TrEMBL record:
Compartments reported by the entry: Cytoplasm
Taxonomic lineage: Bacteria, Pseudomonadati, Pseudomonadota, Gammaproteobacteria, Lysobacterales
Family named by the database record: Belongs to the RecF family.
Database matches in Gene3D superfamilies: P-loop containing nucleotide triphosphate hydrolases, RecF/RecN/SMC, N-terminal domain
Name of this chain's protein: DNA replication and repair protein RecF
Length: 360
């Protein structure tokens, strides 16, 4: 997948921006605070429905602006062209695909694939479990359409059970039982999807990990489904009713799932330095992109925010070498062209005070 055009209005400091990126490596340079990262944010927003930076979508709106919009034309490997948009006016967000209102944000997300390595990427390894669940589920949204219906089914049942738990008093078990049955069926299905996906993903990640962190030995991932699998989910939900009632929410299930990474010579995440966490996250993101390409026949767009600050010269060159040989569209930001790209063919954009200008 490649962006053929990108238009941004009312996003942080960007307004009235229109650019035509090349199919290869696109470098956005300019001073700090100029809006370089916001260009990547716009692309990511179409693919994930949220920013990769902390905060809600509400903070994306440019100060003083009443509306925000991101539109793009994306070309897929089969030659098809899709017109995608996401906008906010007032408090209402709306997604559009080929000019029509999308049935859901998920319908937009499924049409646009972007992965991003940025200063907060180490949270995939060291952060809260919801980061790792989003990582898995985003990948599954794009490569396993049957997963989407099960995920929505689970979310609906979870919302209903939690509403009953918060209603006060002691709800009739007959009210909870149907939603628990729905949770269990969808939850077991989600868990099976995630396990199969991780099994395929692991091979791709290992292929990159052996190059970025060879000193740590073999790499593996352990998945925890969100409940003790010595019992099935249906039995666990019934057993947890009183505890969940006291807490006012459902404490077991795939919405509490997590995974942990382990190396032969660093079996615990705490054994990793911050730099190693970043490299581990990079290998995980590239592995996910590679699996996406294997299944979908095209690489997602790869965003590398502040590349020169996040990676040393050796790892910059390694990443560039990996992407040059894989027909991937790449967006890179920096205060200047990263040293690893000075001798590579790139399309250069200058960003300053929210304006983006093509230079080469």
């Amino acid at each position: 997948m490649k962006f053929e055009s990108l238009r941004i209005s009312g996003l942080r400091c960007l307004d009235g921006v229109s650019l035509t990126p090349s199919a290869g490596i696109n470098v956005f340079v300019g001073p700090n605070g100029a809006g370089k990262t916001s260009v990547l944010e716009a692309a990511y927003l179409l693919s994930h429905g949220r920013s990769f930076r902390a905060g809600s979508r509400d903070v994306l709106l440019k100060r003083g602006a009443s509306a925000l919009s991101v539109f793009a034309e994306v070309r897929h490997a089969d030659g098809s062209l899709r017109r995608l948009g996401l906008g906010r006016e007032g408090s209402r967000w709306q997604a559009r695909v080929d000019g029509d209102a999308a049935a859901s944000l998920g319908a937009l997300v499924q049409e646009c694939a972007v992965v991003c390595f940025e200063p907060g990427s180490h949270d995939l390894i060291a952060g809260a479990s919801d980061e790792r669940r989003r990582y898995l589920d985003w990948g599954l949204f794009h490569v396993e359409h049957a997963f989407v219906s099960q995920w929505r089914r689970y979310q609906r049942a979870l919302k209903q059970r939690n509403t009953l738990l918060r209603a006060g008093g002691s709800p009739d078990p007959a009210w909870l039982a149907p939603w628990e049955a729905e949770l269990a069926l969808a939850g077991e299905s989600i868990t099976a999807f995630r396990r199969r996906y991780l099994e395929r993903l692991l091979t791709h990640i290992q292929g990159f990990m052996v190059n970025v962190l060879p000193e740590l030995g073999g790499f593996n991932i352990k998945y925890r489904p969100g409940w003790d699998e010595t019992a099935d989910l249906a039995s666990t939900l019934a057993e947890r009713r009183q505890r969940d009632l006291a807490r006012g929410h459902t404490t077991v299930g795939p919405h509490r799932a997590d995974f942990s990474v382990a190396f032969e010579h660093a079996p615990l995440r705490e054994h990793l330095s911050r730099g190693q966490e970043k490299l581990c996250a990079l290998a995980c993101l590239l592995g996910q992109a590679s699996l996406h390409a294997e299944i979908r026949g095209e690489w997602p767009v790869v965003c590398l925010d502040d590349l020169a600050s996040e990676l040393d010269r050796t790892h910059q060159e390694w990443v560039v070498a990996q992407l040059l040989g894989r027909d991937a569209q790449v967006f890179v930001t920096g205060t200047e062209i990263p040293s690893a790209l000075t001798e590579q063919p790139v399309t250069l954009f200058h960003v300053e005070q929210g304006a983006v200008t093509a230079l080469l």
